[in-house]
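Observation: inputs received (chain + calcium ion).
Thought: call the complex predictor directly.
Action: predict_structure
Action Input:
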Amino acid sequence: MPTGRLPARPLLAGAALALAALVLLPPVEAQPPAPALFCEVYVDAPACAGGDVGCDTCHTSAPSLNPYGQDLSLHLLVGEERPLHEDLFSAGLGDALAAVEALDSDQDGYGNLAEIEAGSEPGDAASQPAPADCTDLDDQDEWDLCGYDPDYAYKKVMIDFCGRSPTLAERRAFEERSDPSDALHEALDLCLDTEHWRGRGGRVWNLANKKIGPLKAVKAGRDSGPIPLADYDDDYAYFVWTQTDGRDARLVLTGQTFVSAWDRGGVTVYEEWDRSPTQDYEQRGHDRYQAVEKERRAGLLTHRWFLMSNTMFTAVPRTTAAQAYRAFLGYDISRLQGLDPVADEPIDYDDKGVGAAGCIDCHSTLDPLTYPFSRYEGIGGGNPQAPSYSYDEDRMDWFVDTDGADVADTPEAGVIFGQPVEDLLEWAQVAANSEAFRRATVLDYWVMLLGEPPRGTEQGQYIALVDALADEHGHSVEAMLHDLVDTEAYGAP
Ligand SMILES: [Ca+2]
Ligand SMILES: [Ca+2]
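Observation:
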């Protein structure tokens, strides 16, 4: 069970917030302030360590509620007409939270408050508080079950990063070292240079799968498919390059060069290059060349494959922006994550009905997020004179026939995280410097190495890595990994 009680609720802060909501916010059906309000009440809850809780605390998916959300709804302003105005919701949430604390909404045997304090999900029976008492079974087990164990961590580093168990001789040598920490980090440095970790098809390479979404049928270049449209090897190689050798991981979104992966005697070598579209066309041909001029490039966001597979033929490429937001910033808008509504949006330049009830909550975030992507051509549909996958300032003018006259008014300027940006380059800068980017970056490796997202009790260790990525680590993934293998989450058996 959790060791300490949370401090009393800061009612004044909650009241001030509710008052602010009363003055400022329009009536809507979804309740964007809920995650922040929850953490105003449960300041020290592990789930609030990074700011707001996720929407999945109360929702299964929008607008469906999980059992905890349902109990909250039943106790929230009973008798008041639904949907609730946001100001009423904000004012009433505190009492509703208190009213359901003693219930066990998901019926997993743990009360809601106990779950919130322990960092498990009160609305998910599969999520339960971890046993707090560690039972040391030293007599029966070679590992120290209650804390960080260097021998265990060493073995895990060898398997995770080198792809093999240490030999008996290596294990003996490690055990005999008087400075196990130094020995561990030396092993990690060696493993970070192995093919298993950084080679073509290695662990870092595969970490990009969900970001890139490879599709053999339309691959160009090596192992090309029947309809070669673009070569995602460029994207994989570029991604691995940004994650290795101490490079700044923000280059994923902000870099303006390209990278190719070459096999040199069984070792993958990553080679940065910087050709113009014309030069690349001449060198690699029409089905592979990168078509965006250097001054308009924003890392993977403007790579040919990304524009081909996401923008395709669409005028206002919402899919592209949503994929960028999900893949690189960890926010899935379809699951109500990362909502940051912009006033008077969506304007619906392309007449898609995005202003309708039920759409407006997501699109007031997604559409302004999308505008900066709108000048980058996909497979086609825009200016027939402009090459596919290139930047074209006047691109929107060419969609009037298919998307209506207003589409030509779609701005290039947009908004991300509430911050106005002029174009995709500014969008990428704001994104790459955000905490969301650091969280998503660390989370990728955390899940890869530990098999699941940080548990409630591990939030502190996770957030420490997220913060350090910007400071001590200088956005180097390898520096972050050196700290990750020192965490108890990694090194406690
Ligand atoms: Ca429960
Ligand atoms: Ca639970």
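Thought: report the result.
Final Answer: Confidence is low (pLDDT under 50) at residues 1-29, 137-143. Residues 104-106, 108, 110, 115, 122 surround calcium ion (ligand 1) (CB under 6 Å).
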